[in-house]
Amino acid sequence: MTLDDLKLENPYLCLDAEFYSTSTPEPLDDPYLISFNPKAAERIGLDTDAVNDSRFVSLLNGTFSLEGSRAYSMCYAGHQFGHFAGRLGDGRAINLGSINGWHLQTKGSGETLYARMADGRAALPSSIREYLMSEALFHLGIPSTRALGIIGSKTKILRSPIEYAAIVMRLSPSWVRFGTFEYFHYFKAHDKLKALAEYTIKESYPHLLDDEDRFFKFFSEVLARTAKLVALWQGVGFVHGVMNTDNMSIAGLTIDLGPYAMLDDFRYGFISNKSDRAGRYSYAEQPNVSYWNLTMLAKSLSSLIDDKRMEEKLADYGAFIYPNAYAGVMRQKLGLFKSLDNDKMLIEQLLRSLQDAYVDYTIFFRTLSRYDGDKSPLYDISMNPVAIDAWLSLYDERLSKETHTQVQRQEAMLKTNPKYILKNYMLEEAIILAKRGDFSLVETLLTLASHPYDELPEYEHFAKETPEEHKNLTFSCSS
Ligand code: AMP
Ligand code: MG
């Protein structure tokens, strides 16, 4: 389909006026294309040569509309760093409607009703970061929003330092957040909350539509999806950085990518968000915070679902829903097909050993994926080989209890443990070049993002250890 054939629907606008406000995109000056993502275009049935249609840039810039498009921003609340922040909403995101179940949204299109004195803009660096990482997570098998394209401009915005504004067109099957429920709960609009729950079930949990106990089952499934999501983040070494409840998707997706990081050397307490001094959103804390966020969601659903039942479910989350999801992810990373009682201990011991070994998290698992009893490749990548030696003996013993062959294990592990991930230093390099008008590294990283498990000899250098001076970069939210 061409841009002329795409027809948008607006299911969210069937909800009452309190759920959103209409917005008018404010175009950027001298917009230009930075990157187009053909894989996301496929999802909405858009021909990849749409990139050659000059109206594609206009679509992102808000000066060309698709048929059926209605520009609106969504209202939500949320807990930020543990405190209820009142009404937040899409301060700089404008939804255009949905197609094939994907809601199109531009981020950085100017002030909306929810902008709260901010400028409604998004800076080029953070826009490139969101554009690339959402795609990388998707191809790593981690539920995430996606992005269709990104434009830059000559519009300057006040950041420190001053930046040029950009716009990313994001796609998601749902933009409903825990914070959307919180908004209607805290403002005591219980009939609206119920309408939101019905809407969300229809959109993201349709198999529950005719179930009499659908609200409780919906809550239970949000827990299951959140557990899976956070377990996958932990498994791949992804730190979201700002897990406020307004950044938690009710559909269990990674949303609102800001000051994130992929771990370099394994540092359990790594904090990617510069503003997060206490480490509330550190790598180690993500599972705990997911639990805390779910308790906030439970609170906001108390007019719909029996509190006691939700409390029991939340206790299960901590006791086994999350731990089982995590153990499942780690077993796959370790090439363990069976589930044995001592696996939890094996995994905990591994994390301690990785921390002591000062080893790159991704390279460790990729190297382990070729393990054949020869420990030297693993020693070679560790600063402190002794630290992983004892663990490897445990691993040998554990592998002896498997019935799959070494080849089967290696094949499975190579499809689970990525060779290519987008590290912050690579993104920083792509941003520096993009500021000079060279988008080649953005394109290269988009390619790497979509081939995490493949061997790509021409890109071998992107699979190497992070240069020492570029390890553990941190980022701020104000972007
Ligand atoms: P975030 O932490 O980026 O998810 O944003 C938290 C809240 O601040 C959301 O309601 C955003 O829409 C809003 N926000 C962040 N940056 C801006 C901006 N430049 N202009 C308007 N609203 C913003
Ligand atoms: Mg947000």
Topology:
Blueprint lengths: L19 E3 L9 E5 L1 H6 L11 H7 L10 E3 L4 E2 L2 E2 L8 E7 L2 E6 L14 E2 H16 L6 E7 L3 E2 L5 E10 L5 H9 L3 H15 L9 H23 L1 E2 L21 E2 L23 H15 L6 H28 L8 H15 L3 H8 L7 H5 L5 H14 L6 H9 L9 H12 L4 H10 L30
Antiparallel strand pairs: 1-3, 2-9, 4-5, 6-7, 7-11, 8-11, 9-11, 10-11, 12-13
Helix pairs in contact: 3-14, 3-15, 4-5, 4-7, 6-7, 6-8, 7-8, 9-12, 14-15
The structure holds adenosine monophosphate and magnesium ion (MG).
The site of magnesium ion has 3 residues, from loops.
How would you explain this protein's 3D organization?
- Strand 4 (79-80) and strand 5 form a beta hairpin.
- The mean pLDDT is 97.
- The longest helix is centred in the C-terminal third of the chain and has 28 residues, at 307-334.
- Helix 6 (214-236) runs antiparallel to helix 7.
- The chain has 15 helices and 13 strands.
- The two termini are 34 Å apart.
- It is globular and about 60 Å long.
- Among the domains are: 11-172, no CATH class; 336-414, no CATH class.
- The strands form 4 sheets. Strands 2, 6, 7, 8, 9, 10 and 11 form a 7-stranded antiparallel sheet that branches. It has a two-stranded antiparallel sheet with strand order 1-3.
- With 479 residues, it is of the alpha+beta class.
- Residues 246-247, 256 line the site of magnesium ion.
- Adenosine monophosphate binds at residues 88-92, 114-115, 118-121, 242, 247, 256, 258, 477.
